[in-house]
Amino acid sequence: MTTADxxxxxxxxxxxxxxxxxxxxxxxxxxEAIRAVVTAVAGGRAKSRRLAxxxxxxxxxxxxxxxPAPRAIGDLLTGLRRVGASAISPPVCAECGKKLRTxxxxxxxxxxxxxxxxxxxxxxxxxxxxxxFRDRKGLPRCKMCPDNDNRDPVTVVHEVIxxxxxxxxxxxxxxxxxxxxxxxxxxxQRVVWAxxxxxxxxxxxxxxxxxxxxxxxxxxxxEAGVAGIVRPxxxxxxxxxxxxxxLEGQRVCRNCIAKxxxxxxxxxxxxxEPATRDxxxxxxxxxxxxxxxxxxxxCTVCGESRMVSCRTAEGPICPNCRPLPIxxxxxxxxxxxxxxxxxxxxxxxxxxxxxxxxxxxxxRLRGIHSGTADAPVCGPCTTPDAGLWRPCPTCGQAERLxxxxxxxRCTLKQRLHEILADDxxxxxxxxxxxxxxxxxxxxxxxxxxxxxxxxxxxVLSDLGSGRRPLSHEALDELPxxxxxxxxRSVLVATGALPKRDEQxxxxxxxxxxxxxxxxxxxxxxxxxxxxxxxxxxxLRRRSRGKEITHYQLQVARQHLRAAVYLxxxxxxxxxxxxxxxxxxxxxxMTSDDVRLRLEAGHFVRWALSQKIARDLSFPAVRWNGPSQxxxxxxxxxxxxxxxxxxxxxSEDRLAGLLLLLYAQWPAAISRLTVDHxxxxxxxxxxxxxxxxxxxxxxxxxxxxxxxxxxxSHAVLGRTDSPWLFPGGQPGRPISAxxxxxxxxxxxxxxxxxxxxxxxxxxxxxxxxxxxxTLGIDITVAVKWQRAAAGDWxxxxxxxxxxxxxxxx
Length: 808
Known about the structure:
34 helices; mainly alpha; three-stranded antiparallel β-sheet; single chain; 7 domains; 28 strands
């Protein structure tokens, strides 16, 4: 392969490229041993790509060991030598040529301990010598001139911390200071000096720490439960995560470091971290690195100028357009584009390659590697003696572990115990169900990712240690956001917190803020009466103890905002509702800056009924039928596509058919439960209203499939959810907005499609039957029947005469 091919592969498969390059040089090690070392050294995606690109540009470094080269290459050479590599050269000192076991780096060069030591003038004696250490001010000193600070570091730090937390235990502080730098006493001395100079580093300003060891010390104190110690947040993204990267005098997280390196590529204009630079020093992104004109041709499929993957009779084809062979999938039996499994050598289609399932041999949820769709088999059970799997040292289960240590599930259990344990080392009984549910989740990696996001671990740790009460009110004190709402839903789903109507709480908070923001005292009183005794009271009466929907929340917000807009307009003209006249109201209704005019009519009519306003008229707008044309053919075309297109997700097909065939809003579809689907004597029915509706065979098959295989995206991964369409939060259905977005992506216009379906159903069914089967109000059904010009006025009399005739 050419260098250009290697650079292209460095982006797509960096670990595989590095392994292959090392295997070409080192014949004494097997590929798995080399891959294990490469995986341990390469780290994350960005680092592994940089390492692969450096080796692709100069593979000779594997045999000569000479710099300049990135630090990761030196670590790779050292790691390979430790596992027995003989053809791989160890790092070589750039000055004396000595072969190294460990090295010091200066820029892109590495040196031995002698050549790498910096020489400068000692600030104490003035002699030019190698630097032994730096004093309290950061000035260099030689080994002959030590800093005469003979104080006990533990005593100094204990005095600093007791000023913040008087009950701090000296032994705990001593142990944390020892673990901060167990082999480097000089580092511990620097920690002491920095904390003595700026004690605020312990109370939230840790991002200003001059040394990384201070952050380690803060984490150890926080884990030990020392009161008053605050883990610092990243000063740029404000997340409480690991911050050990220096940037402009502050310690930031790795994401902010990556964003700070973003530059505009001089070729494509994309803003990304540069992969290299051209001859003028201008940045080039990874994509443009492999887009050299000499190695690019125009793809005959997409027309883009790219690297050639294969050639056909028509011409070159790029990797994106390279067709997969049409084969018989060894798992599901479908004839589809397939790739050959690296484990079994048999073809697998794209669906089976990505779908996890419960192995019929061991029963665990893993990726499918063999078997059939009805009886899948995971990788360890397919080839248990292939050498790819090794037992977890904790639980003994066979896993494909790329590094020493426990498996992901055991790691998750250890992490959960660290977070949720109290001062006695045990988990509170209230949080025990949360611990057990998270520890037994089918996707351990998903739970670990969730625990590492934002403030999740910090909040759960505070709840477990008792620093924060386990209540809804305590969570309300945290900044609003999706992370806190998801934590709340997990606690509610596991029984740690009682259920409450979050939409109603959100509405009450919005009402309070909006009313308090009004300028006049009289306006605040009127808004409070309107919101509390009309909007909220009517909403609670209509919900009948159930949770209100997102649409109900939005309607109430719009009515309240409309009232605020009208009162603000009146206040700007020194008017009130009591002094407002019809001419003033009509002037507002016809003004250019009027907003939510129809919703404001509800407020005006309420004010008239409460005797707050007088001599005003704001009539309601009567609905006279759909305002858009009914496209019946488009409705049936979309329904046929959803019935027969297997490439679409089954849950999306079912939701779209419920809208197109039964005129159900996304809010109603999202709140369906598995109990709404009934199967009796081979007939599948769905209960949308008081009377169940028989489903035709294709729709019935989709409904039964959704009941059996539905899965939420929640971190708990529960399959016992009562909802037919589970949402991203445990114990809650998919939101009406998310359901609407999924239907829009199918090309369905929600309002237009529902109006068409309801219009056609109203021409075929009486209003009473329409209301009972579709779950809509009888008055709505009557209005739609009149709009559709359906003549069902004599239906009841006709049924009565027919029954009397049959009895006689």
